[in-house]
Amino acid sequence: MKKSIFKLLLISTVITLSLAATTTQASSLSQQVTTATVLPQPRTLNAFTLTDSTNQPFTNQNLSGHWTFLFFGFTQCGSICPTTMASLKQIYANLQADKQKLPQVVFISLDPERDTLPIIHQYVTGFDPSFQGATGSQKELTLLTQQLSVLYMKVKDPSPTAVATDYQIDHSGALLLINPKGALAAVFSMPHDPSQIAKDYTKIVG
């Protein structure tokens, strides 16, 4: 019995020290970076199922084993989306120039009604051939965005001549950094500075 209690105390101590080390590391990173908000404890994501732009399933498994930049938007977005995607292209170029480990870049459309998979594929690869796109049902999108604290809302055109497809989507423009365990590790809020984000990314991934 005493041995069992000792083992439990030992395991508890190890877990406590591990969590303290993780929190300390995140706090240290927060002081080093300039554009990122590093989470004290990475946020694990519940299971989700989307479809990528090549018509293959896109799930939690697609976020495992590598760092990933996620960005939520829609292809008919007038300013935030093209500007952010261009920033991601520049971030990628900066990392390549510095011979850094390249992240996966994924654009997730919040507009499955109008953004078909071919449209999403053409959109993302227009910025960089290696960029990926995905979308899903509104139920799955809501499930994922709520976990990541991504806000969005469909705004219909008030014009009396507007049709059902005449609408915009108001959404947040943050870049989300997912770690190799598939958990949210850091958030890059707008405005995005590609050069500085590349530097902060390098510090975060170590």
| Radius of gyration (Å) | 20 Å
Strand segment tally: 10
Largest sheet: 8 strands, mixed
| Strand content bin | 25-35%
Helix content: 40-55%
Average the pLDDT over all residues and give the rounded result.
Answer: 87
In summary, what is this structure?
This protein has 206 residues and is of the alpha+beta class.
Give me some keywords for this one.
206 residues; alpha+beta; Glutaredoxin; 2 domains; eight-stranded mixed sheet; two-stranded antiparallel sheet; 10 strands; 40% helix; disordered N terminus
Descriptive notes:
The protein is an alpha+beta fold and 206 residues long. The protein has 2 domains: 1-32; 35-205, 3-Layer(aba) Sandwich (Glutaredoxin), CATH 3.40.30.10. 40% of the residues lie in helices and 25% in strands. The protein has 5 helices and 10 strands, in the order αββββαβαβαββββα. An 8-stranded mixed beta sheet has the order 1-10-9-4-5-6-2-3. A two-stranded antiparallel ribbon has the order 7-8. Strand 4 (68-73), helix 2 (80-97) and strand 5 form a beta-alpha-beta unit. Helix 2 (80-97) packs across helix 5. The longest helix is centred in the first third of the chain and has 31 residues, at 2-32. It is globular, with a radius of gyration of 20 Å. Mean pLDDT is 87; it is low at 1-24.
Topology, element by element:
Elements: H1 2-32, E1 36-44, E2 49-52, E3 57-59, E4 68-73, H2 80-97, E5 104-109, H3 117-127, E6 132-135, H4 138-148, E7 152-156, E8 167-171, E9 175-178, E10 183-188, H5 194-205
Parallel strand pairs: 4-5, 5-6
Antiparallel strand pairs: 1-10, 2-3, 2-6, 4-9, 7-8, 9-10
